[in-house]
């Protein structure tokens, strides 16, 4: 792999040990995947933030690094709401360690905005064909598919390395030829809302890590495509998908229809809603995996208007989004639901105290049982609210 003179100096340790370690990671990945060079990236989103998943070893590694990131960089969700962790039932010892992780990242110049939806943050804009280094699976899917930017599904260390160096190895989804669809998904019914998450959950395991192109009866919204991609990435390992005539790359060019075709009927979507249907009454209801958009917060606020909820309900979103729309937060929390920032039901240990959960996310449906040991069932946002037990105060 070709390195510039400055990159060679970095690799030789002339700019410090931390940068040397970072570029060693990038060069190793480049050598493994046949990259020809390092390329500049516009931003980084770094996974490996929750103390639940990082532990003391991860904290120690981050704390030992020195220097400052060269590009705008943000974090994946943490293990708790940084401001309201006590309300979540987080233990003080966990909170202390979690805060130390956040502070270690801040020392490196990383914005301590903990979210899986960095594309909602002001000043963190990316566009078509921009090269980036993002690591959270749903964020990667959205960036590649809905925005048309270019990123591999980076690990936490490689995304952090890219942030410190300002570059990443030129392989995988940075290349035109790797972005071509290789399997077609033909959907024979109109889908809307949570149906898109069910679609991703249903076909993700079959697709694996390949690039699909969807042929659909109707055009999904960006929120629906966010749900589709998140579920595809969790049930399978899809980092890029196309929708014929809808997503950017499938709009500006006509892809050759792949020979392999996966047909999808309405019955397959309905099966996802039937997952764990023996859960008669969930102990907690969670929405916002990936984090809620302003439009989703508004939808929830409208649905809970004039109602009181009887069960614990979390509405997860980025802190910046919640602070930008305080009226929506107030309207939601008036019902008894909690707008939870910085974290989500998958990466927080607060989830573990519940035995059963209703989710509106195919990603959460895939991860909560395995990562949190909590039984989960799937529902639309409207049905999630009904599951929370509603008293109409009108």
UniProtKB/TrEMBL annotation:
Transmembrane segments: none
Cross-referenced InterPro entries: PMDh-L-like_dom
Catalytic activity: (R)-5-phosphomevalonate = (2E)-3-methyl-5-phosphooxypent-2-enoate + H2O
This enzyme's EC code(s): 4.2.1.182
Domain Phosphomevalonate dehydratase large subunit-like: 1-386
Enzyme superclass (EC): lyase
Pathway(s): Isoprenoid biosynthesis; isopentenyl diphosphate biosynthesis via mevalonate pathway
Single GO MF annotation: lyase activity
UniProt KW keywords: Iron, Isoprene biosynthesis, Lyase
A matching Pfam family: AcnX
CDD domains in the cross-refs: AcnX
GO biological process terms on file: isoprenoid biosynthetic process
UniProt keyword Cell division, yes or no: no
Lineage: superkingdom: Archaea
Function: Component of a hydro-lyase that catalyzes the dehydration of mevalonate 5-phosphate (MVA5P) to form trans-anhydromevalonate 5-phosphate (tAHMP). Involved in the archaeal mevalonate (MVA) pathway, which provides fundamental precursors for isoprenoid biosynthesis, such as isopentenyl diphosphate (IPP) and dimethylallyl diphosphate (DMAPP).
Family designation: Belongs to the AcnX type II large subunit family.
Quaternary data: Heterodimer composed of a large subunit (PMDh-L) and a small subunit (PMDh-S).
Annotated protein name in UniProt: Phosphomevalonate dehydratase large subunit
Species: Methanolobus profundi
